[in-house]
Amino acid sequence: MRMSPEDRLRSALRAQVDTVEVAPDALPRIRGRIQRQRRGGWAVLAAAAAVAAVIALAVVVFVPDRVPPPDGPAGRGPAASATREPAGPPGSSGPATTAVPDEPARVQLPVYYARNDRLVREFHDLTLPVDDDAHRIAAAVGEALRAGSAADPDYESLWPDAVSVRGVTVDGRVVTVDLADVGGAPRAATPALAVQQLVSTVAAAATYTSVKRVDGVRITVGGAPVAKLWGAVDTSRPVRQAPPSEIYAPVWVIDPQHGQVVGKAFTVHLAGIVFEGTVRLRVRGTGGVVVVEQVVQLSAGAPAVGEARVPLTLPPGRYTVEAFYLSAADGSVQAVDDHEFSVG
Asked: Which InterPro entries does the record cross-reference, listed alphabetically (predicted)?
């Protein structure tokens, strides 16, 4: 009888099966292996579920922060300072953070210094023991008053070395800054400008908090009111911020900050209080060679604070960016503010 292909296959398989010797304990061992595999499978599934839960939680918790505004350094180092959005005049707004209240946090805050008896501003990355309104303002003020803390060597604090911040309290739109011993006379030509350095820093930092706008800053020393600071400035009542045209520099560079490293394509951010808002931008390369020079129109003219953002593209190297205005009387260069920076 001729066998079909299917019959020949069955016969061959049966012959192979007959050659297999089955151990007496084969069945129990197979069952045990199956149980172990089942337990391992459940463990893998449980681990996968745990990973999925963590990923889901991360998606819920990590909501991207809005990008910091261009009133501070772009890409100066920490990732939080990589890029910025418009923020309006000094002290008008600030970057949000993902910090959780009552936990240590690293935030970027505005800090005011002086140059040529006028105030200018930098943004500094500061670590807070607790991220709340009072600690944010206290950290910014403490940085502003600390000698040698400015990134630009042309900027300085006007306060004596002995001063320090003991604490900050917020009552509505009035902020109380309690200082330790304020030491001798300030470095400012007028002590009032030193007080305005503190007040301007409080006002700017407050825009990064729920306070938003400060109506006055009460200054105390060692927890006690002081009628006159250094015997010269009336601090018997909350001090208000002076008009910008009276205390701010005529022109200053916001970005790039001094010492910052930027990409080949970057934005120069300028601010100033000048007639008709017309300033000059100049960038020098190696050996002081001018590689960029142009007229820039700010968003507003004096007595308002105007701003402008100028996109540039430069090859890698070290540069100096300068901002200034020309005298209407004789065309001379006035109020130069410059920052050294690098293109990576």
From this structure: GerMN, Gmad2_Ig-like_dom
The secondary structure element, H or E, covering residue 110 is strand 105-115
DSSP assignment of 267-313, as one string? Answer: EEEEEE--GGGEEEEEEE-GGG-EEEEEEEE-SS-TTS-EEEEEEEE
The whole-angstrom separation of Cα 84 and Cα 66 is: 9
Give, to the nearest 10 degrees, the angle between helix 191-206 and helix 133-145.
150
CB 78, CB 84: distance < 8 Å: no
3-state DSSP assignment of residue 239: strand
Which residue spans within 180-300 are E strands per DSSP? 216-221, 224-225, 228-229, 233-234, 251-255, 261-262, 265-272, 278-284, 290-297
Residue 140's nearest CA partner among 156, 155, 125, 161 is 125
Domain layout of the chain by residue ranges: 97-247, 251-343
**pTM, rounded to two decimals:** 0.71
Domain 251-343 is in which class? mainly beta
Q: Is-contact 143 156, C-beta < 8 A?
A: no
Q: Could you report the average pLDDT of every consecutive run of 10 residues in the chain (344 residues)?
A: 57 45 41 48 43 37 31 34 34 42 82 95 95 97 96 95 93 97 77 96 97 97 94 95 96 96 98 96 97 98 97 98 96 96 97
**From CA 165, how far away is CA 287, in angstroms rounded?**
43
Give the C-alpha separation, 152 to 201, whole Å. 17
